[in-house]
């Protein structure tokens, strides 16, 4: 029985910051961002947009009413949690109107979480072939004003429906994971932004890629020649490019090196315009590849490298299913171009705004007309979400 991804949805915020503008405001060379990071734009989320609204929007874009009745599990992978107890998945379950007898929970391991969630979903469907599992990767990446990580912020969510007989990609059952107890990126409960050892994190990313790939080859006796593309976790595309270059050894044919390089360029197109979305970054790259590479054909294998600081890495592969191209979009880049540009001062006000609660622990929000779902208020410390059309 084939198990895999039947549908993929994506959502990001309505505002965009041009990195050219950020470079000028921060008095740095624009090429340090455009060429040094391979980034162009960042999605900027206002206070009324968070992991719940983004996750619900991405999911709503792909789910039918029949899907909502068949879903047996909702898994939200995030490192931008809104509550230390209640899972964001529960809020999303309610907003979408998914049938009540479904498990809903949140999973965390930095940017690796969505990969763990997909594996959990696969195991559930293997035992329950008629089940559907909704996996959501939703995050808002914040690093602080004028920090080294500021150009690698972003906001967005991926929603993936895992089923038997999938219509886009099937798992190949060949995953190899690795865990290292390190401190390259972390965010204690008392901090709203993370602590990062950037040089160390880069080395760990590349070394876990090297060693996990070596173990993968050892266990499954596979060569890069077997894959049409490699998708990477994308904290910023230039780091993933370094990873690809590590894999492109002299043993590979020139034709294969050219193919993998071209497909890599297609896989970073969305991230270049959205920025870092933590748990969803790898899968935004996968979606970008699928929707921007018309030469891919059914039966071809795609390798994926997942990395989450702290650290857990995984190398695995998926196979394209016959007719996969019918279940994808071709207008997403144009849609990204419809976001509202903001000046640097506006970005700072939007992105770093915090709720100001009154003496009862309440606040009412506005200016969310262009969202699908919104955080409309906090009522005595309870977060209240609505579909925006219901509030009109």
From TrEMBL:
Residue ranges constituting the Hydroxymethylglutaryl-coenzyme A synthase C-terminal domain according to the UniProt record: 181-258, 265-342
What does the record list as GO biological process?
A: acetyl-CoA metabolic process
- Record: residues binding (3S)-3-hydroxy-3-methylglutaryl-CoA: 29, 143, 242, 276
Domain of life assignment:
Bacteria
List the InterPro entries hit by this protein, alphabetically.
HMG_CoA_synt_C_dom (IPR013746), HMG_CoA_synth_N (IPR013528), HMG_CoA_synthase_prok (IPR011554), Thiolase-like (IPR016039)
Q: Where is the active site?
A: 79, 111, 233
The Hydroxymethylglutaryl-coenzyme A synthase N-terminal domain covers which part of the protein? 13-164
Pfam families documented for this protein: HMG_CoA_synt_C (PF08540), HMG_CoA_synt_N (PF01154)
Instruction: Please give one Gene Ontology molecular function term for this protein.
Output: hydroxymethylglutaryl-CoA synthase activity
Q: Keyword Nucleus on this protein?
A: no
Q: Which UniProt keywords apply?
A: Transferase
Question: Which PANTHER family has this protein been placed in?
Answer: 3-HYDROXY-3-METHYLGLUTARYL COENZYME A SYNTHASE, HYDROXYMETHYLGLUTARYL-COA SYNTHASE
Q: Which family does it belong to?
A: Belongs to the thiolase-like superfamily. HMG-CoA synthase family.
What protein name applies here? Hydroxymethylglutaryl-CoA synthase
